[in-house]
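INFO batch 0412 | record 1 of 1 | parsing
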Amino acid sequence: MKQFIKWLTITNSFNFIVVLSLVSIIIKIPGTIIGDLIVNLIGLNRPPFSSNTQTAELNIFHYVTLILIAPFFETLIGQYIPIKLLSKFIKSNKLIIILSALVFSFLHLPVLGFLLGAFLVGVVFSWGYILKTKKKGSKPFLIIMLAHGLHNLIAIFAVYLLQLLNIQ
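INFO prediction complete | emitting tokens
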């Protein structure tokens, strides 16, 4: 794991974005499954609470929103602002990452099934943001925003692939 983190600190931005996107997708899957199980157990398996009810037909506006607009605002509100503010008062990066990830997860309400998955993705993106702020000349906001956009693109593709295969 230490070698992986070391590699991430020295790799180029493109590799960082791709790897962070893939890690965030991988970590999101069990989080969302567990989140939906909890939503089902408490009897809220209906719109807008369950993530299973969020797969509507998308048009070009939805794609632009999911791949460009949402990543911009969610990076701003879920990473940039919390990390910038919290780092003035808190010295522990772990605590800053957890608090930033909480903010990020709350941006995904009212879909309760997404909360745990979004929190885990928020941990990955916040950690990546902090890692990139330590590297001189890197652009953490842009890098995390692009990683988030790629994450959403992969998620859209996966949903359509599952629908195509009738696995949903």
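INFO post-check: The chain has a mean pLDDT of 90.
INFO record closed
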